[in-house]
Amino acid sequence: MSQNVYQPHNHSHCVANALSQAQSLCHDKGARLTKVRQRVLELIWQSHKPVGAYELLPALANDGFNSAPPTVYRALDFLLDLGLVHRLHSLNAYVGCNHPGANHPVCFFICEHCGQAQELPNDKLNALTRQVEQVLGVQVHHQLTELTGLCPSCQPASGETTANDHA
Amino acid sequence: MSQNVYQPHNHSHCVANALSQAQSLCHDKGARLTKVRQRVLELIWQSHKPVGAYELLPALANDGFNSAPPTVYRALDFLLDLGLVHRLHSLNAYVGCNHPGANHPVCFFICEHCGQAQELPNDKLNALTRQVEQVLGVQVHHQLTELTGLCPSCQPASGETTANDHA
DNA sequence: CGTAATATTGCAACATTATAACCTAAGGTT
DNA sequence: AACCTTAGGTTATAATGTTGCAATATTACG
To answer: Which residues are CB-neighbours of A59 under 8 A, at least 6 positions away?
Structure first.
């Protein structure tokens, strides 16, 4: 595991790393990380809690950008295409990817209390894919697994009082 | 695998089986399988292609039922609670479950050409869950995996001409 | 540089999916 | 029957996402 969002960490490193990876990826692919796109990426990376498209609009307006739905959806599409963010269907929300690149299997755990989402670079996912392909004779192009439950901080543990607040 | 929707099968057996399971499950739990609820379940089971909530409305109207959104959403909520149907987030659509009962891990393969969805009773899913719980220290309550790609009939195979039509 | 081609953004309207709130009807129990 | 609980009818609205076209910015090229 490259990181665990449920443990204390210097989040500015997450953001800096994400931006730097985005820049080099865009450079490599000849894609343009425009101001709106970069700002949307920054906003998404403000926390590990997936953010809805419409939540981004006021923030963009605040920064002097246009803030109609197509603006943010176009930026999101761009970031999704490059694998810089993932979309969590169960939440209709978007979250940063810390190992962007090609189309890769995606598995997230989402805490149903604090809302923070942790991506898992999971070996078992590939095994699952191969098994499905064999059993059904299908070709798998994309895959997304979403697990929900309680993260360590939000479990009503014996020792702790309770929880994280939504970050 | 109890069945494979991508292979020829007597679909009336699927429907009959689903209805009979629904009836006994409702009886056991003291839940009321009313006419609207049963009709919605039948409509969902008309094919293995997940169906959107708003697609059900005209069909209900046709049968003399009320057909405003809350009607169908309430029926869907009922069926979802009992595990008689699943909701596929990537499609915003609903599909029947052929082994209803308690909350169980869900894995679907969805053909991106013909739209038919096959649920997989997958052992690997539980292994995945346990691994995630151990690595992250989390408690998993629900899980949904959605794979997309091409089913055997829809692959541009060497031998075949092409595809299924959307059923 | 100047111009054409391409990519991006602004803008308005609209489509799709889902829910809230409030009331009426049906069914079950005493 | 009187009462309670669950289910359904109805209207309006919220939340999420898209289409189409004009305007502008960026890049490519002569």
So the answer is: A43
Residue A140, SS3?
A: strand
Residue found by looking up tokens 């692919």 in the block: A29
- Asked if residue B133 lies in contact with residue A111, where contact means CB atoms within 8 angstroms, the answer is no
The minimal CB distance from A146 to the residues B125, B139, B144 is found for B144
Reduced to 3 states, what is the DSSP secondary structure of residue B39?
helix
Q: Where are the domains of chain A?
A: 10-100, 103-167
Q: Mind listing the pLDDT tens digit for each residue in A57-76? A: 999 999 999 889 999 999 99
| Block residue for tokens 């405003």 | B68
When CB atoms are compared, the residue of A124, A136, A151 closest to B4 is A136
What 3-state DSSP class applies to A30? Answer: coil
CB burial of residue B163 (10 Å; 0-12, 13-18, 19+): middle
| pLDDT confidence band for B167 (50 / 70 / 90) | very low
Q: Which CATH architecture has domain A10-100?
A: Orthogonal Bundle (1.10)
